From TrEMBL:
Catalyzes the ferrous insertion into protoporphyrin IX. This is Ferrochelatase. It is found in: Cytoplasm. It is an enzyme of class 4 (lyase). Belongs to the ferrochelatase family. It catalyses: heme b + 2 H(+) = protoporphyrin IX + Fe(2+). Transmembrane segments: none annotated. Pathway: Porphyrin-containing compound metabolism; protoheme biosynthesis; protoheme from protoporphyrin-IX: step 1/1. One of its GO terms (cellular component) is cytoplasm. It comes from the Archaea.
Length: 349
């Protein structure tokens, strides 16, 4: 039995052109259209187009400054690494990349898997912290793509996985190694340790998303492994709509502090992308250095071989036809449809 493993991702345009960026942004805004309230589909699409046109120039400039987004190549490498790891474990798997808002799309991944004749699909979003517009939406898109293809294939879905102990250790080791290379003492009174998470509209939290809870529990665990008692958490918000987002903002807490240096760990990301290379490395660095503060931004360990092992651990019970609860996976409480499994759900009493 061949298992098709679909690693689900956000995606970013490979070229910093208007032809690539505007449709990308339009898809993002339309996917979150209800944040503007109920409106007919044609109005929602027009609104999404307006927002995309407004945001595109600055985003194109960001992509040009960073030399194009490396997200998709890094994501493809992760697919290859997971397939190699699972194959070494004796499992028959093929791998696919499906992104929510760029090419290859999730529908493209499903079409490729169907053409290859796989016997089942496993969808795994590569978002460290489960959120509604990322993890939950990507899994829903996978279901829709299979339904639209009219393909009768079993689909297993894995959502939240930040509680995997290997993941917290991996990130802690990465932060510690980077600090050692930079000659920075994380416990120094003049050093601010800043965990930067991707922001989300508070609407999602009010609707029941536990994203902020996951950010809090994960950063607490990470700080313990690092031996850091004093740290701050900030959110990288994208305020393209006039709606409230998570607080405090990363830039605010970094700039308003009185530390001589700021060490930023981008906890929401498992790829280098515009949010790390532009928002942190360029924009935040400029703000801090103008105030005489050093910025030390921890690189994302996207190619750490331990990450491939971790992802393989999550896929293994489905590919090997083992009860996923044996691997501590439980029914997800965040997914829009029943059937998704995660490490975040509580044990049944």
């Amino acid at each position: 039995m061949t298992t098709g493993v679909v690693l689900l991702n956000f995606g970013e345009p490979s070229e910093p052109t208007r032809e690539a960026v505007v449709p990308y942004l339009e898809r993002i805004f339309y996917n979150n259209r209800f944040l503007d309230g109920d409106m007919p589909e044609d109005e929602a699409r027009e609104r999404s187009r307006e927002l995309a046109e407004r945001r595109a120039p600055s985003l194109i400039e960001e992509y040009e400054e960073i030399g194009g987004s490396p997200l998709n190549p890094q994501a493809r490498a992760q697919v290859d690494a997971v397939v190699e790891t699972l194959t070494e474990r004796g499992l028959d798997v093929t791998g696919y990349l499906g992104t929510q808002f760029s090419d290859p799309t999730i529908a493209d991944a499903v079409a490729a898997a169907e053409a290859d004749g796989v016997d089942r699909l496993v969808g795994l979003p590569i978002y460290p912290l489960c959120g509604p517009s990322t993890t939950v939406a990507a899994l829903s898109d996978l279901n829709d793509a299979v339904a639209d293809a009219d393909w009768d294939v079993p689909v297993d879905r894995i959502s939240g996985w930040h509680r995997h102990p290997a993941y917290t250790r991996l990130r802690a080791d990465n932060v510690r190694e980077y600090a050692d290379e930079e000659g920075v003492d994380l416990t120094d009174d003049d050093t601010m340790v800043l965990f930067s998470a991707h922001g989300t509209p508070t609407h999602y939290l009010e609707e029941g998303s536990r994203y902020d809870v996951y950010v809090d529990e994960y950063t607490t665990a990470l700080a313990h492994l690092l031996g850091v008692e004093d740290y701050v958490v900030g959110y990288q918000n994208h305020e393209n709509r006039d709606i409230p987002w998570t607080e405090p903002e990363t830039e605010d807490v970094a700039v308003e502090g009185d530390a001589e240096r700021v060490v930023v760990e981008p906890v929401s990301f498992m790829h280098e992308q515009s949010e790390t290379l532009s928002e942190l490395d360029d924009e935040l660095r400029e703000e801090l250095e103008s105030a005489g503060t050093e910025l030390h931004r921890v690189p994302v360990p996207h190619d750490d071989p331990r990450f491939a092992d971790l992802l393989a651990d999550l896929v293994e019970p489905f590919a090997a036809d083992i009860d996923p609860e044996y691997y501590q996976l439980r029914e997800c409480q965040c997914a829009a449809e029943e059937g998704a499994m995660c490490l975040n759900a509580p044990r049944a009493e």
